[in-house]
Amino acid sequence: MKQWFSDLALNVAVRMVAGKRYFGCEEEKEARRCQKVFRNFFHFFGLFLVSDSIPFLGWFDSGGHVKAMKQTAKEMESFVGGWLEEHRHKRDSGEAKGVQDFMAVLLSTLQGSDFAGYDVDTINKATSLNLIAGGGDTVAYRKEENINKKERDDARHHMAAPNQDPVGEKPTETT
């Protein structure tokens, strides 16, 4: 069930931001690759490294986390860069009609803008990734947390002895 909620939350976030559908679609291989990359991204997003607190220990990559982060960043750049190029192609060819996703709106909004040396594509990709990370991972985590709490409460209620309260804290005396 955890995997299902993660896939659903990621699918909703990616669909709103990039207009892609990766959960329950025909392109199963690309969908699984996308889910794996995002799963790694979310894992590294919350990972604590010693070099984060003590920067001069940056050369010390125990566990190979920095190397894995760089690999995940390359794969993520490939996905999001591909989405951006696809949106740019649709806009230039005139296919982008009707309802647009966030990436298409941001692409048209940032077109021709100057951001003091910052690349418009980088701004678009970073903003889109942050929205997916905030929408996908957080929603999945909160849903899982709520379901686990409900399961614990139900288990406590059904497993309590007749002379105990439903939470199972202390028995009540019967006279």
Automatic annotation (TrEMBL):
UniProt xrefs under PANTHER family: CYTOCHROME P450, CYTOCHROME P450 82C3-RELATED
Protein name: Uncharacterized protein
Domain of life: Eukaryota
Lineage: Eukaryota, Viridiplantae, Streptophyta, Embryophyta, Tracheophyta
UniProt organism field: Camellia sinensis var. sinensis
SUPFAM superfamilies: Cytochrome P450 (SSF48264)
GO MF annotations in UniProt: heme binding; iron ion binding; monooxygenase activity; oxidoreductase activity, acting on paired donors, with incorporation or reduction of molecular oxygen
Transmembrane segments: 41-60
Keywords: Heme, Iron, Membrane, Metal-binding, Monooxygenase, Oxidoreductase, Transmembrane, Transmembrane helix
Keyword Transmembrane part of the UniProt annotation: yes
Ranges annotated as biased composition (Basic and acidic residues): 146-157
Pfam families cross-referenced by the UniProt entry: p450
Location of the region described as Disordered in the Swiss-Prot/TrEMBL record: 146-175
